[in-house]
Amino acid sequence: xxxxxxxxxxxxxxxxxxxDWNQNDNIYHMRKIPIIKIDNNQLLDIKNNIVKFDEDTLKxxxxxxxxxxxxxxxxxxxxxxxxxxxxAIAIKLNKERLxxxxxxxxxxxxxxxxxxxxFQKETKLNYxxxxxxKTNFFKTRFEVEHEQFIHKELDEIYRQKNIQKxxxxxxxxxxxxxxxxxxxxxxxxxxxxxxxxxxxxxYNIFKMIKQK
Length: 212
Fold this sequence. Notes:
Shape: elongated
Distance between the termini: 55 Å
Helix content: 25-40%
Number of helices: 6
Number of domains: 2
Radius of gyration: 22 Å
C-alpha cells in the first residue's frame, strides 16, 4: 500500500473542483492517506456517481488514514485517494460502503499523487452504481448554490400566493408587469436556469430582503 503525506482535502457530498472550495468549508489536513491506482473509466464512474463497493473490495479501504485535528492526530476509516495517470480524487465511505464524501485535490498535490501512481499497479475495484451525482459540471458551485437559494425563496413566495412580490420581480427582470401568479412564477423559474443578469438581479433582491 502506498501513501501520500501532508495533503489538504475538502470532503463534500458533491464533488467540487479545488477552485470551487469555500472559505468556510471543513478542510481536512491529512497527515497520511493511502492511494490506490485504478483505470480512468472506474475513476470517472466513482467521481460522477454514488457507488456502493462490494464486500471483497472493502479490504482496500481498511487501512486507516490520519488527519491533523486540534494539535492531535485522528485516524479515519475508509478514506483513500484513488487515481489514474491523469487525475486523482479522495473518497470517504460510509457504513453502507457508499461513496459518502468526495474531494478534489490541490493541483500540485494531485501532480504528486499521479507521479507516485506511475509506479503502481492498477487495482480493480468492484462496485455498483447506485445513482448519478447531482453535480453540474457546466456550472460553478457558486452558481449552483445561488440557484438553489433563489428557487427556495421563489417557491416560498409562490406558496404564500404573494403576487405583489412576484409582480415586482417580473418588473425588475422583464420591464413588464405580470398579475397572473402562475405565469409570473413560471417565467421567473425559467429565467433562473439561464444564470444571466436577471439571475444575479433576483439573487441580490432576495439577499437584500433577507438582511432586513
